[in-house]
Amino acid sequence: MTGMAGMDDLPYDVLLSSFSFLPVPDLARYATVSSQWHGVVTGSTHLWKGKTYTTNRRPSESAETRAVLRILPPLQHLIIELADEFAIQFAYPQMTLSLTDTGGIGEFPKLTCDFLLARGDIVSNILSSQSTVDLAALRNLQILRVPPVNVVDPPVYRAEHVARSALQQCPNLRGLFICADLLSADYLDTLEGFDRLQILEIVCPRLDKLAFLRHCSNSLEVLHLCCIGVPPQEYTELRRLANLRRLRLHECQVTEGELRPALEALGSLEALQVDRCCLVRDLSLLRCCASLRQLRLTLPPVAGAPLVLRDPRLQWLHLNPRMRVSVDADQVSLRLRTVSVYADGLPDALPLLHALGVDAGSLGQVATLPRCPQLSQLCLNFLVGTDGPQHSVVWVHIKLTSSP
User: Fold this and answer.
1) Cis check: omega of the bond before 93, within 30 degrees of 0
2) Is the pTM of this model over 0.85?
3) In a domain, 56, yes or no
């Protein structure tokens, strides 16, 4: 190591090129040679591209582990999960920490990341003023499967505590994802900090109100809800989100009656995804989406037999971009799992879908789409057949043209 000190006079680009061939433990050692080498190792994210490092030794047990963690450049993704054994898996720009106890995060030097995904209770050990994660740099946080706390009076839920701590401790937080079995909408309505969020995703089957969305009416740009317990009338709250650009509703009990006025108020909406919302059947409501550019609709299963190819004139069907299946003229029954149909306009696609045996009632739901002059791309997912191994999926990718 001493003989290498004379290399300090080498240009930065030469050092950077030479260091790019070194494994992570060697980079940790070379970073201690001089301030110049330390600056090269820690200051260039390009140097770290493709670098990996895996260890089962804790920082308190291994000088090498401590040295590596101290020189890491800012991460894009940090994943913290509870596991039976401790492990660090580093593949820049992402690192996964498997901990037996989230309290073990205290062994780490300061970690800087833009995105944090955590499983389990992280309030006391990560979302606190003593956290070893640089919360000031954190912009996106995902909280997965937070269990409720059994407190009868007053009702207190751990997921809400995590959300509150995140909004309080992360001043630059812009994206929040919460996946929990139970959330108190009334508690969320009292939290401060929602007005900073640009992205909000909530997966909770027992959430029952959306009034808290009023706190992010001017900032929110992306909203994803998977909340089957929210009653239909609550979706009128979507009208408050004046700057919303992307909306995804998954397994939500929303009807056209509530969705139509909401879409009329969302003048900035560019992308809409409606997945398995069984109460949305009339797609004429999309006529009010003046700015809509992308639509993805997943319809509930259509009753009937497994997918049957009835028209021998169909010679080629795209199963995926790399594989084609030729259909012989005398082959009258073909069970397919996935079919992609491409057409330049909706009228050209309808005969193909009829030939595939897609229910006519489902086709009627998309008949009004060419009347949406701003809509350019459409992806429909028809589930044809009964549940089971013969269940077939028809993906329909259509490029729409404006009506004259």
Assistant:
1) yes
2) no
3) no
**CA atoms of 49 and 31, how far apart (whole Å):** 17
List, in sequence order, every beta strand (DSSP E) within 160-215: 175-180, 199-203
Residue pLDDT, tens place only, 173-229: 999 999 988 889 999 999 999 999 999 999 999 999 999 999 999 999 999 999 999
* Residue 17 belongs to some domain of the structure: yes
CA distance 230 to 254: 8
Strand partners, 325: 317
Identify whether 147 is part of a domain: no
Alpha helices in 141-228 (DSSP H): 158-169, 185-188
Q: How many CA atoms, within 13 angstroms, populate the side-chain half-sphere of residue 205?
A: 2
Residue 209 inside a domain? The answer is no
Give the range of the structural domain holding residue 332, as residue numbers without chain letter. Answer: 299-404
Among residues 147, 76, 86, 146, the alpha carbon closest in space to that of 116 is found at 76
Is the omega angle on the peptide bond into residue 154 within 30 degrees of 0, that is, cis? yes
Local structure of 265: helix, strand or coil: helix
DSSP 349-394: HHHHHHHTT--HHHHHHTTTGGG-TT--EEEEEEEES-SSTT-EEE
The answer to whether 273 and 249 have CB atoms below 8 angstroms apart is yes
Domain count, the chain: 2
